[in-house]
């Protein structure tokens, strides 16, 4: 068990190092930091100064170590586009993205889970069939089309919600939140639904499949034979077995959610990390793209690792044999 | 052909999907042959700008879906856009198939260190969703080639980015099939007759491992089309001066607020119809050609 855990952690660190190296190579080989960061009339002394400061005269491997070291100490480099430090750029935009992700998670929990349970417990009911039909749309509709159609209906036609931005925000310490104002809540609803569309359909379909499967299993039949109430059978015996794989699969879908958050932020001009990434791609701002790549890779790999390592602890059936 | 006919017998969903795809392809490739390009000066008429769909006040019979801000007839513009989207999707799938296929063949056949390197590369790439990766490759290509690029260059970049973003799935599938096939008697027989490794790979093994990959390719075609549309909509794919479903929706999105909803909504619906049809067909082919599932439904 411990050997396996160490091996998986080592693998993850290696892959992360590989990702960082590729990202570093992008920054090191693409674009010219001197022309990007210096004014056109910079003197030769200024150029020398910047070369020294960025360490451009050192060997590639030394520069990679500096790059890694800098990242560990919160120094992510300088954006070619705005000439600002990347660290603070990300920090000011992080709250918007986290609040959006949080809101879409709420939508997933309060819409996806109940509907998924309904479809799993009563697969032949009229509502279940309707939900399954609509969920096909959630899977096939491209994320940005969902956004555009929601704007067309709820923002332009009905005028209920704004179509872009975060509304009024309140500053609490280093965190700007839109969740304390009415306009902030109104602004987050459409983006949250857009981002959640994929997860909601995913949860509904996963829960339904799992519950249908669990419903056939020995221990449920036995519980019925014991004369337990249907409510109790589903809520205590079936749900436990069905929720675990669903949550796991959802966690493993995180990469897609991050990609979709870029699209959603693009559609709604949401001032988060996703739209920063978009602007950086449009401007070929390689340092920011590189940091974003490392950032997303790290989140994704760590979540994967945690899910894989925790799974056997939560589900005793999956203890690795011989470990 | 008989197998194909059998695949559709008694299944209304896939038949409707296949018919819709044929109709959309005809629309996308025939209409542009007989109409002026709405993205050249001769194809637009500024007097018709913002002309609404035919059933609304002020709609014109020649413009059933209305016109956009430059007076482009939407029914023509959408045919041009659909043509680009279908071609970009199809070519990028082929590129992904060729890259992934080649790497998968080599990895499975050679094994050892080569296999390890290719598969670790695949692992690293799998940390990123294809959509995000296509965005990054597009951005990097822009950084290398500069921003003043032509429409053709932009389209080529989009095609290659989507192709690269999707190679892993093909490589993994082909690799695992090759690892089974390479120990078969017919491979040993070919080797005894003195054929080179390349010849064995391409002439003997490849035909035997293609079937599952082609089904994946059908399903990926839908995803590739969505990816192109998403990139173009976000302004990092095909430029707004060139028609694709994504760039049409992007352009229409500018006028959504002022009430000219048809400029973006109709291309959206067209995109959805295309993708749903391709997906239904792909799912059906997958179920039909997968002996494990066949007979169960």
Automatic annotation (TrEMBL), chain A:
The lineage of its organism: Bacteria, Pseudomonadati, Pseudomonadota, Alphaproteobacteria, Hyphomicrobiales. It is a multi-pass membrane protein. Keywords: Cell membrane, Membrane, Transmembrane, Transmembrane helix, Transport. GO terms for biological process: transmembrane transport. It is found in: Cell membrane. The chain crosses the membrane at residues 12-31, 100-121, 133-156, 184-204, 242-269, 289-311. Its main location: membrane. One of its GO terms (cellular component) is plasma membrane. This is ABC transporter permease. Gene3D superfamilies: MetI-like (1.10.3720.10). InterPro entries: BPD_transp_1_N, MetI-like, MetI-like_sf. Belongs to the binding-protein-dependent transport system permease family. Residues 94-311 form the ABC transmembrane type-1 domain.
Automatic annotation (TrEMBL), chain B:
Residues 82-282 form the ABC transmembrane type-1 domain. The chain crosses the membrane at residues 12-34, 86-112, 124-147, 153-170, 213-238, 261-282. One of its GO terms (biological process) is transmembrane transport. PROSITE patterns: ABC_TM1. Keywords: Cell membrane, Membrane, Transmembrane, Transmembrane helix, Transport. Belongs to the binding-protein-dependent transport system permease family. This is ABC transporter permease. It comes from Pararhizobium mangrovi.
